[in-house]
Design goal:
By secondary structure, this protein is an alpha/beta fold. The protein is 46% helix and 14% strand. It has three domains: 114 residues, Orthogonal Bundle (N-utilizing Substance Protein B Homolog, Chain A), CATH 1.10.940; 41 residues; 213 residues, Rossmann fold.
Length: 444
């Protein structure tokens, strides 16, 4: 309850709050932490539905009750009884004492019994968008976009997948070992793996393990990276000796992948607005054996760059990663998405001049909203006739990836690929284009 209060009361990422919470409470053992974290993320995953059920119950048993927001203990209790299948009377002793302090106006046993028969209001049930939004606890503006683009049935499947639990996915660092060697090393540590469906260098781990404690991880044999993210890196089609810019590097997962595909030969310039993330990236480079990457805080001069390939993994609303980051639902909004789209257009415009004639931009997001994906790309192309789109599917096919998507973009949908949701476009500059950055001029 205390942890849920902290997450609901701020704008920090839920996983960051959880780490800080446990770091300051050493008395909690591994099983306690797992128990607490599981329930926290379950409540976050189903927050809208639990709220709906709780409000319906309160209207029936305590019509005079009012609160600015529902107490966390109420949402936790609703989760325990309704989602876990526990009998209401069996859970009263667990909640009763704290309940009398937090919600003295409502009888705990009566609320728990009421939750068992709580329902979604009829007016919500009859509206496809509203119903889907509540049942899967996904904001209405996101559901509306998916229904408009994919149709009702597929949007339903996508919502269910976006609200599910993701697998643990890793990428083999081929600078240190082969795919087979990594799998054998993990087996020696008692970790079973399954090859990913699409990425040739990925594995899924079927059970939760302490990754950081594994010898193979400490030796840099693999990185935690979603399979979809691995495919985005492959669209860069890098090779040894290339000059590459990762314009929004963040923690640097894709830069590390690019370095392995380049056999640690060439140059990767990792850029981000947050210097702390870049410090962490350098630590990851040391573990992975990557020596060709340099870091640069966004805003510092970027002169003399004529990149063969530029990755713009743009900040976005993150709707493709809701299953991995359900806490995002607390602040995900249409205005946030609009702001992200503006930032994305600016980033593409600002960085386009860094690409030499014949080079490429891979524009990528981990969201599944048209306004942040196709619309951004189409706007860029309308302003830059010297760039054209290449078919992402054909690029992946040449690398042995059989992805059945809709050309020319890469759009990974969790219910079809069991990856996080990703979008990517490959934008290639014509050979005859004038490189404004190299010639010293600037684009207005």
């Amino acid at each position: 309850m205390e942890l849920l209060d902290l997450v609901r009361g701020g704008r920090r990422a839920a996983d960051t709050v959880v780490k800080d919470f446990f770091r300051s409470r050493h008395y909690l053992g591994a099983s306690d932490r797992r128990f607490i974290a599981d329930r926290l993320f379950d409540v976050l995953r189903h927050m809208q539905l639990l709220t709906c059920w709780s409000e319906d119950t309160l209207q029936r048993i305590a019509p005079g009750y009012s609160a600015k927001s529902l107490p966390s203990i109420m949402l936790l209790a609703a989760r325990e009884v309704r989602l876990s299948g526990e009998k209401a009377r069996d859970r009263v002793p667990d909640f009763g004492g704290e309940w009398r302090v937090e919600v003295p106006e409502v009888e705990c046993s009566v609320f728990l019994e009421g939750i068992m028969t709580a329902d979604i209001p009829p007016a919500v049930k009859t509206d496809d968008c509203m119903s889907m939004s509540v049942r899967h606890s996904i904001p209405q503006f996101v559901v509306r976009d998916w229904i408009d683009r994919f149709g009702r049935d597929e949007a339903e499947q996508l919502c269910a997948a976006a609200n599910g639990k993701p697998p643990v996915c890793i990428r083999v660092n081929t600078l240190k070992c082969s795919v087979a060697e990594c799998r054998e090393g993990l087996e020696r540590e008692g970790i079973a793996t399954e090859p990913t469906l699409l990425s040739p260098v990925g594995f899924t781990i079927p059970r939760r393990v302490s990754i950081q404690g594994l010898t193979t991880f400490r030796q840099g044999w693999f990185e935690i990276q979603d399979e979809g993210s691995q495919l985005v890196s492959m669209l860069m089609e890098v090779s040894p000796g290339m000059s590459v810019v990762d314009a929004c590097a963040g923690g640097g997962g894709k830069s590390l992948h690019l370095a392995s595909m380049m056999d640690n030969t060439g140059q990767i310039r990792a850029v981000d607005i947050d210097g702390r993330k870049l410090d962490n990236f350098l630590q990851r480079c040391r573990r992975a054996g990557v020596t060709i990457a340099t870091v640069e805080v966004a805003g510092s001069p970027s002169t003399g760059i004529a990149a063969d390939a530029l990755l713009v993994d743009a900040p976005c609303s993150g709707t493709g990663t809701l299953r991995r980051n359900p806490g995002m639902k607390l602040y995900l909004s249409e205005s946030l998405s609009t702001s992200c789209a503006h930032t994305q257009r600016c980033l593409l415009e600002k960085n386009a001049a860094l690409v030499k004639p014949g080079g490429r931009i891979v524009y990528a997001t981990c969201t599944l909203l048209r306004s942040e994906n196709q619309d951004v790309v189409e706007n860029f192309l309308s302003l830059h006739p010297d760039f054209g789109v290449r078919d992402a599917g054909e690029i992946l096919k040449k690398q042995g990836v059989r992805w059945a998507g809709t050309p020319p973009y890469l759009e990974l949908l969790p219910h079809k690929t069991d990856t996080d949701g990703f979008f990517a476009a490959v934008l290639v500059r014509s050979e005859t284009s004038v490189n404004h950055q190299a010639s010293g001029s600037t684009r207005s």
